[in-house]
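(Deposited chain)
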Amino acid sequence: DFLNMLEQSRLKSKRISKTESVQSQLDTRLPADCIHIGPSDYVPWQNDNKVCFIRMEWRGFGDVPMNLELRLSVEDSPNSAGVAIDAIRCAKLGLDRGLAGPLEVISACTMKSPPKQMRDSEARKALEEFLAESASTAEEDTGEAALAEAAGGRG
């Protein structure tokens, strides 16, 4: 993925999707000159390591300027495996329910640029509802199969 950062059009696209993903979670969008989110470049000696720097600035009591800086370093390749597995499992639930097309709720929970952007809290609630509906559908299907089997066994 890092080698893709050498292609400027890909870099621009990633910057837009990452920024929109963060902006969508805010009550009020930040002005463009107050937010910078995006990949920087391919750094050969970093190999499969990704480094993230976060700086937040605000004013505290008495209008005192404050800031917080954070550095996160992770091995990138396995980083999204859990999210990918969740997306695949939910896609299977959708197939089992006969759903077609994009699963907007699942996409909102697992993708940076879903077809329908949702707040994280809204997406989680909608996902829990989707999972509950899937569980009740599975229980109904299992119950109907058991009844049919029992009825057939009495024959």
Notes: The helical segments are 8-23, 81-96, 104-110, 120-154. The CA atoms of residues 143 and 149 lie 10 Å apart. The radius of gyration is 22 Å. The beta strands are 49-59, 65-75.
